[in-house]
Every structure is written in structure tokens, then in C-alpha cells.
Write the C-alpha cells for this entry.
Amino acid sequence: MKQYKPRDKITQKMTRDGLVEVNETRQTAERVSSRERDADFSGKKEPEAPQGKPHRQKIRHDPREQPQAEPQKPPEPQNQTAQDAAQPFSASPDASPLPHAPGAAPKQDTGTAERVMERIDAAHTRKASKKAARKAQEEATVKEKSSRLQFTEEELSAPELERYIEKSNRAADRLDAAKAAIPKQKKLVKERTFDEATGKAKTRLRFEEREKPMPGSKAHRNPLSRPAQEAGIFVHSKVHSVEKDNSGVEGAHKSEELAEKGAKYGARKVKQGYRSHKLKPYREAAKAEKAAFKANVNFQYHKTLHDNPQLTSNPLSRFWQKQQIKKQYAKAAGAGGAKGIKAAAENTRKAAAKAAEKTRQTVAFVARHPAGVCIAIAALLLIILVFAGLSSCSAMFSGTINGVVGTSYTSEDSDLVAVENNYAAMENELQAEIDNIERTHPGYDEYRYDLDTIGHNPHELASYLTALLQSYTPESAQAEIERIFGLQYTLTLTEEVEIRYRTETSTDPETGETTSEEVPYEYYILNVELTNKPISSLGEELLTPEQLEMFRVYMETSGNKPLIFGGGSPDTSASEDLSGVQFVNGTRPGNTTLVDLAKQQVGNVGGYPYWSWYGFNSRVEWCACFVSWCYNQAGVSEPKFAACQSQGVPWFQSRGQWGARGYENIAPGDAIFFDWDLDGSADHVGIVIGTDGSRVYTVEGNSGDACKIKSYDLNYQCIKGYGLMNW
């Protein structure tokens, strides 16, 4: 039987050396073009021939062409010595002759074939890498969108958790199936790839499958619907004006109206049914997501009980623990994706450990003080009975509680401070940009500045965000604070060119006569302008009337957290007397003039003009404004800060002018920072008057909303540190 062999796959490619025939089956290539090859412009130079030796041109030979060998001529005697000297080594007898040597057999050029095969391999590699990258991206997207919990080996091996793990997995499966049932649509997106072989980046368009938005999310009103309604109303009004004179017309008109209402009702029901059918996948996905959330929280709760058996004996602790787990899980899972789920699990574990410790402490306290606990419970019951009998008092108490809650910031204290620090960091970047204008925009003859003060009232920002977002975190508020920052500050750079004249003198070389003339030239000016629009005025433009009213309430009450951002002292005692105090001078001279100026402000209530001088149009927590005002009055422009932790402390620390609590060489005029709640953040600042060796004496603004003289033990734990001034 005759054997058939497959035909070789042969393709032809045009290269710089001509037409090349590629046998992809045998992985060979052959040049088939008969044209002469291009000259070599690679830049490689031939070795320079010795003096007296003729230069021989390097010629490329076509492997298909066999030139006839020419008889070799013996070298001339006068050039033989030079040739011998030019050879760095003796050629071995077995070495093949050079391609350009006369009489040598032409050597086949395989460079073109190798380049072609390299390009083919590179194309296959790029195609395979793109396919693998796309597959990995799809797998990552699926994992990111999944709400499935990742269980450890210890959790999977626990029999008590097996049922809850199974429920969580089933709920996750139903959720994935519900999301897969949501209609998809293809969107054209840009994709940027990098070719490792060529080192080039390419951008191409591809279709990406995404979920369709929920029908009806955007209203598409028919522009002709309103005119049609108006025309119908006009017709009916005309018919109605004459129907009273003709009972037949009136009956026909009533029948027509009834038919129209029936038709509209039927059309409305059809649209509702169609919309309900279209929304069914989205409803199923939302239902499945809610069930998956419940199953995951239930697992985390029973995992907590498994890790902390002592919680099972206290129903109140179990209920509180489940609510904490639900809160922590919802907060962490809100970030979305696998990272959010992992963070949720970690947060719930931390919350469980914390709850277990609190429960242990509570049980131990009750065991140590059983009589006291019984008395407290009895007193609580008595209070409940009293308030139950006095409905009016109860109503008043409830109203007071609701009033306090309704006027308080709803976000966590840590979130309030974090958002404020983020906004202050943006202001610091703006200040740094202005300070470096002359370096980033060189070449101008003059720089003119018209700058408003950089700074804001932290309570204005917190009140605005609370009125707009209710409860917020740094992540959820980031977009809004960037928008507010862009509206509050406007930095404008304008170039201005003036024609000015300068006097130039010249001397005639023949007569020696000197003449002067006015020569025009261009004088370049850069105008730098910064405008600051207060957040309070922005709130009037951006908030709804209801939100604006809540904003004003929060501003009036400071969210019932007046000292959360620092800038004040709750001390309501009177200012102290310095009579009889013997100050001990250190090696640093300080500035007594500044201290005398600060002491003259004692008795000021409300902080005016300090916060007004700083640039605020209403009262703020003004202790830092007071310190900055005193420094400015003493003739120094820096430091100037309105916030203690985010602005004041970094200014001194970044310049190496900082002394921690217990620093022994403080001087009059130094700044002293306080941390009332010992959380590591400065809450208040004052000016050092001096020390008597055991106590430090200060002048403080906003100490109970007044300027006062106060004193503290040098080792007082609420002293955070000292900002050291160099005079």
C-alpha cells in the first residue's frame, strides 16, 4: 500500500535581504531572491589595514551562487613583511577560510533564517502570554467578586463548625449563581500590553463582559409625552364644555374617558410586569447576597463561641457579641472582594478576643463585689420605677437624650480625626507648592504674591461631612474632601510682561565720545494668587435646606465633641498668680518680650482677634491661633499653625526643634503641647513662661475659652512635649 507523506508547509516572507522561503515543518529558511544584498550599515568597522597594505572590501556571497575561483597571486615581496606583521596569530591548518578569502568556498548565510525563526517564536510567545494573562485576570476577577469565606484547616476539622461552614458555602454558591444570571453586556475597553521580546508597549481595544445596569436606574422620559397629554386635556375640555346641552354627547364622552382609563391601567400593568420580569435577576442576586452575609456572620459567631467557650454561659454577652461581629463584618466586607472578606474575618476575630476579655473582666468584677452589684441593680430598678411613674419627666429625659444624640457627630472619633488629618495633609502640600514656586517656575524677574491664609475650621469640615454623609470613614469621605478642597482653594499663576527701559552707554572708538540712551527690554512677572473660600459658605451652596440646617446645628454644638480635634482645654478654673515664683533660667535665652506680650492677653474670652487674624470668619478652637498670633507679634512669621497635632507638632519635629516630656532646658517662649486623653495626639498648646525647677508655668489661649496663666508639674503625664524656639 502506498504511503502518503504530508506536504511541507512553506511560506514566503520579504526581509531586508530579499525574499526568504520558510519551511515551517522542517524549521528551515532559504533565500530565494536573486537581487543583490543591501550593504551592511550596522556600524561595525573593519580592522584598519596596516600602512602600505591595500584595503580589501568585505563582500557578502549568496549561498545559491557559486562564483568561480580565481587563481591566487603570490604577494608582492615589498608587502609580504607588512602582511605578516599585521597577523596577530597564525591560523591553524584546520581552520576554515574566511568567507571573503579568494578561492574559499562560500559559506551559507543562516542569519536571516535565524531572525525569521526568532520572530515566529516571539509571536507564539506573545500570543501564549496574552492568553495566560487574560485567563489569570478572569480568575482574579471571579475571586475578587466572590463573597466566599476562606476556611483554615483547623476550622474545617472542627465538628462544631462543619454545619455552619456548609451553610456558608451553599449560600456563596447560590450568590455566585445569582450573579451569573444577571444579564451581561460587552463594553469596549482599552488594554495596554508589554512585549518582553521587543521591549515595546502596545495599546489595543477589546470587548469586556460586564453586568448590565439595573433597568430603570436612569429615567428616559419621552419628550413628546407632555405635549400629547396637553392635547388630550384640551380636547376633553372642549367636549366637556358642550356636553351639558346634549345627553348623548355626555354619555359618549363618559364612555370614552372610562375606556381611556382602562387602557392606561392595562398599559401600566403590562409595563410593571415587564419591569418586574427584567428586575428578577437583580432581586435574586440581592436576596442571595443578603443570605450569604447572614450565613457568614453566623459562622463567625459560632467560630467565636468555639474559640471562647466562656461566652456561652452569658446570654447578654452572646447577644452583644453577635451584634459586634455583624457590625465588624459589615464594615470590613463593605470594601468588597476577597480582601474585604479576609479583613472582615480578621476584624471579627479581634472583636471576639476583645469581647472575651471584657466578659472575663466583668465576671471577675461581679465575683469580687457581689453586694455592690446587687445594690446597683436595685438602684437601677428603682430609677426605672420612678421614671415610669412620672411620664412627663420620662418624656423630658427622652427628649434630652434625643437632643444630645441628634446634635452629635455620628462617626467614630478615630474616623473624624483621620479625615481631619487627611485634609490638613492636603493643605500642607498646597503650602509646600507655594513655597517652591520660584524653584519650580524659574526665569522670572519678579514674583508677586497675593495669598489668602491656608487653613480651615476642623468642626466646619466635620459638620459638613456629617450633614452630607451622616456616618463616614476616611475611605468613604476621601472623594468628598478632595472635591471640597478643590472648591475651597484656587491657586492661579499668571504671567505678565512689562516693557521697561534701562540706560546703556557707549563710547565712539574714533572720537572717544560717550553717549547714553534708553533701551527697552521685557520684564517678566509671575503673579501668584491663592483664594480661600470658607467651608461654611460652600455648605450653603452644596447642601440641601435640611442638610444645611443640620450643618448649622453641628456647628453650634461642635458635635458635642469640642476638643476632639485639639485646640483647647476644659479647665474652667481661674488664672494663676505668679507672685513669689522664682524662675530658674537655663542655658537657652528664650524671649521674655514674647512672654510679656502673651501675659498681657490674660483675661481675653472668646479668642477674638486671634482666630480672625489667622483667617477664620467665625470662632474656632483657638489655642494654636493664639500661640501663632503671639509669635507673629514678636516679629517671626513661623511657626503659624491652627491645629496642634497635624500642623504644630510636625513643624517643630521636622526641624529638630522638639523636646519630649521631661526636657530640662526649656526656655521662655517655647511652645508646650498637651495630650489630655493620652492617645498620642496633641490636644492643646500654650507658651512657656518659665520653670521654678519643679513646675512649668504657661500662658494658654482657649483654656476654658479664655486666656489664662497655668502651671503643671514637670512630669505631668499629659505634657506631650515642647516646641523649642530659636531666637
The chain is about 50% helix and 15% strand. Residues 413-559 form one domain.
